[in-house]
Amino acid sequence: MKYLKENISANSSTNEPRSRSTKKRSSSRVPILTSSLKTMALDWETDRAENLLSVISSEDSIDLVILCDCVYNDFLVKPLVQMVTDICYLGASTPKSTVVLIAQQLRSDSIFELFLDSLMQEFYVWRMPDEKISPNLRSTSGYVVHLAMLKLAATM
């Protein structure tokens, strides 16, 4: 979590307008989008997704869930997939297209295959092509990166 928070901090924009020149621009303004970015560690065996409602409002939803090196034991697969599914249903009254980013070191083919099979029951899953990710996360490095989206939300 420490490195994730540092990375987010280093790459976050300040939402301050940038001035490139002194020329007068058109009177139409581009709206500045703001975000509410929160990082949290979850224990998918003991925590409950509903606990996240203390940090998001009932009108909000979670846009991104990051799973980083979480799949390493077969008995943890079912609770992990259930937690991610529950998180995608939190907040807004209709499920939004929450994106799940999975970066995983490949330790056991059978365990990761079990995870993907379980995940694909509820989610559409795409493997990120090597040319779209950092060289140190490409398949030749022993890592894989996937994106997933809840099937129900994707059809809305």
Short descriptors:
156 residues; alpha+beta; Rossmann fold; 4-stranded mixed sheet; S-adenosylmethionine-dependent methyltransferase activity; SAM-dependent_MTases_sf; Methyltransf_16
Describe this entry's structure for a reader.
There is one protein chain. By secondary structure, this protein is an alpha+beta fold. It has a domain at 46-154: Vaccinia Virus protein VP39 (Rossmann fold, 3-Layer(aba) Sandwich). Helices cover 26% and strands 16% of the residues. It is built from four helices and four strands, in the order H-E-H-E-H-E-E-H. It has helices at 2-11, 77-88, 109-122, 151-154, and strands at 64-68, 99-105, 123-127, 143-150. The protein has a four-stranded mixed beta sheet. Strand 1 (64-68), helix 2 (77-88) and strand 2 form a beta-alpha-beta unit. The model is unreliable at 15-24 (pLDDT under 50).
Q: Outline, from the CA principal axes?
A: globular
Proportion in helices:
25-40%
Helix segment count?
4
Structural category = alpha+beta
Distance between the termini: 33 Å
Low-confidence stretches: 15-24
Mean pLDDT: 81
Q: Return the CATH architecture of the domain at 46-154.
A: 3-Layer(aba) Sandwich
Top-tier CATH class of the domain at 46-154: Alpha Beta
- What is the number of strand segments? 4
Pfam families: Methyltransf_16
GO molecular function, one term: S-adenosylmethionine-dependent methyltransferase activity
Region (Disordered): 1-29
